[in-house]
TrEMBL record:
Glutamate/phenylalanine/leucine/valine/L-tryptophan dehydrogenase C-terminal domain location: 144-351
Binding-site residues, NAD(+): G180, V181, G182, N183, V184, A185
Organism: Mesobacillus foraminis
Protein name stated in the entry: Leucine dehydrogenase
Catalytic EC class: oxidoreductase
Amino acid sequence: MEIFSYLEKYDYEQLVFCQDQQSGLKAIIAIHDTTLGPALGGTRMWTYASEEAAIEDALRLARGMTYKNAAAGLNLGGGKTVIIGDPRKDKNEEMFRAFGRYIQGLNGRYITAEDVGTTVADMDLIHEETDYVTGISPAFGSSGNPSPVTAYGVYRGMKAAAKEAFGSDSLEGKVVAVQGVGNVAYNLCRHLNEEGATLIVTDINKEAVQKAVDEFGARAVDPDEIYSIECDIYAPCALGAVINDETIPHIKAKVIAGAANNQLKDPKHGDIIHELGIIYAPDYVINAGGVINVADELYGYNSDRALKKVEQIYNNIAKVIEIAKRDGIPTYLAADRMAEERIERMRNSRSQFLQNGHHILSRRG
Ligand SMILES: NC(=O)c1ccc[n+]([C@@H]2O[C@H](COP(=O)([O-])OP(=O)(O)OC[C@H]3O[C@@H](n4cnc5c(N)ncnc54)[C@H](O)[C@@H]3O)[C@@H](O)[C@H]2O)c1
Ligand SMILES: CC(C)C[C@H](N)C(=O)O
């Protein structure tokens, strides 16, 4: 892999490799763009097939956070970390504390939080070494687990997409096929069930499926069946790249709206579903609830204020759909434009009067 060519392709700022032999830490911090502010993005712990796969994932996810934070209206840039390892076996206290010291060394250019494979308890350990971490325990006056708030945002965004597809944002009686019923999707199913939607669920974890069947009267299907099931809305809430050449011909839903990051395998798949008339709620717009919630910690966490911002995901999805219709483009492109325009506007409004952190008119010494 030609690292600098890759960084140049999407103009990444920084790639940091962190190694600590004693704890087994192998982490990669990718900082994509800090135009809007410090890079905020979670830490993913995963067993990668190769170091190259881990680097690529960190870079791809970091760039996604730049767009997510910009589209959500946050004054934050995009970054992400991946820790190479099995979250069920390889975690230890020293690992997260060592990682916290590396974050501290970046002096605020990067702020972390939870992602797949990491928990509030892990963030609390990182917090032993640095303040540049969010999603820490409510006991510290912080926001805790972001997943329920992410789920609320996905629910709000799904309603906005439903309004476009079905003429009403009510989800009562709508059949929603939920792929993966983990932390986010369990809470999403709760909202959907409360509104009277009919749920079809799948997961490779049988216990998670059974819980949704027992609590929400969901119908369970096999993981491969979820793409071809008759439904109104398909909600990808497990992995990325699930909208691809193999799955698209099977999809019967009129709306795709779910929590997973990087749902389109390639941009061309966003074009194909657009041509098929499917309303796609762009992943990083609809799943921004978690980052909006943890970012509120930077102002002294206030749950009501954070939830009000998360509710705006309804309007953000509606706006993306409106731009897409106005410009005759797919929604994924409309979302990219919305995020890029905000970054450009802010780049040009950067202070002209600060030099080395001091106002040029301030008298020093
Ligand atoms: N947690 C958040 O706040 C948040 C925020 C934004 C985006 N996301 C994204 O949303 C998705 C879900 O996040 P989460 O926190 O709920 O993760 P999670 O690990 O709790 O849940 C994912 C679920 O998907 C299941 N799964 C994995 N492979 C599957 C397959 N092939 N078929 C069916 N099910 C499968 C897993 O068993 C698990 O139950 C991820 O893509 C994550 O990046 C999460
Ligand atoms: C900052 C975190 C809450 C980020 C979250 N894992 C996401 O992908 O949006």
